[in-house]
TrEMBL record:
Keyword Protease belongs to the record: no
Family, similarity comment: Belongs to the CPA3 antiporters (TC 2.A.63) subunit B family.
UniProt domain Na+/H+ antiporter MnhB subunit-related protein: residue ranges: 110-197
Transmembrane annotation, as ranges: 72-88, 109-134, 140-157, 169-189, 195-216
UniProt name for this protein: Na+/H+ antiporter MnhB subunit-related protein domain-containing protein
One GO term describing the cellular component: plasma membrane
Organism: Actinoallomurus iriomotensis
Its membrane topology: Multi-pass membrane protein
Length: 226
């Protein structure tokens, strides 16, 4: 795509965003007014659905399509990281690849701590996802914990072990399946708080793993001497 075409796309998108922002801003209720249509609807609807808390009712029922947009933004960000950080032609990986990296020289205490915290952190992430519908949030936060937990292996100084336990194709498939499942739930089965919370946790966790995997690959890329 040429520079002129990129600027054209940017201009069209910016103009459309400006129009939508102006329309939304002019229809905002007056500050300090007594008319709160959104607040007057959220609590009755949450009670009618028997949702454990109002926040979960808003995220996964009344505004499920908004949450869907947030999940797709995260998915697009992870895909963008995969594309932008891909190995370009000028960067040639060493013939041994990532397996040329053995365990780093770190203190034994740090290595042991990383390995001991790994199962604890994974269990914490699963717990947050599983109980997310009972409290505000849950799926997204738990997914972040799960996606970050396995990288304790890297902090313990063992990148080859990290590469073995997080096969990128599997997490790519998991992210796609979770995003697709959330689309189906948001469009036709809104209100299924438990299921939607679970697939959010899966999608977020896979997205974080993919993004961090590409960051690590780029940072540890071996360049041949020119």
């Amino acid at each position: 795509m040429t520079r002129r075409m990129r600027l054209l796309v940017l201009g069209v998108g910016g103009a459309g965003l400006a129009v939508l922002f102006a329309l939304a801003a002019f229809r905002l209720p007056r500050f300090g007014g007594a008319f709160h249509p959104y607040g007057q609807r959220t609590l009755p609807n949450a009670l009618a659905r028997h949702t454990p808390n109002v926040i979960s009712s808003i995220n996964f029922d009344q505004r499920a399509l908004d949450t869907l947009g947030e999940e797709l933004i995260l998915m697009a960000s992870a895909l963008a990281a995969v594309l932008v950080l891909r190995t370009v032609r000028a960067e040639q990986e060493d013939s041994a690849g990532e397996h040329a990296y053995g365990p780093a020289q770190v203190f034994d205490a740090l290595r042991i701590t990383g390995y001991l915290l790994l199962p604890v952190t994974l269990m914490t992430g699963v717990y947050i996802v599983a109980h997310g519908y009972l409290s505000p949030g849950g799926g997204f936060q738990g997914g972040v914990v799960l996606g970050s937990a396995i990288h304790l292996v890297y902090l313990a100084g063992d990148y080859p072990a990290l590469a073995r336990i997080r096969p990128v194709p599997m997490f790519e498939a998991g992210e796609a399946l979770a995003a697709g499942a959330f689309v189906v739930l948001a469009l036709w089965f809104a209100g299924q708080v438990k299921a939607m919370n679970a697939v959010v946790g899966l999608e977020v966790g896979c997205a974080f793993v993919l993004a961090l995997a590409k960051f690590f690959e780029q940072a540890l890329l071996v360049r041949k001497d020119s």
